[in-house]
Specification:
Layout lengths: L1 H9 L25 H20 L7 H6 L1
Length: about 70
């Protein structure tokens, strides 16, 4: 996620969007999370991405607020 975002930012992207279906955090219901260990890693990776985005000056907003930007 960080590599992709860096590439997008280098090409002028001003907004980043991240979303997952609720089934993404239920082991066995998505290709992202097959086991409890996968869930731990998935949540850890999301945390790393959010730290990255915050460090780049991004802030989390709801989709309706993003449309105003």
């Amino acid at each position: 996620m960080v590599r992709l975002s860096n590439s997008l930012l280098e090409n002028g992207c001003r907004h980043l969007n991240m979303s997952f279906h609720s089934t993404s955090i239920a082991p066995g219901l998505s290709p992202f999370v097959g086991t409890e260990n996968d869930l731990d890693r998935f949540l850890y990776d999301i945390g790393l991405f959010l730290q990255f985005a915050h460090g780049k000056g991004f802030e989390s907003v709801s989709i309706d607020k993003a449309l105003d930007a």
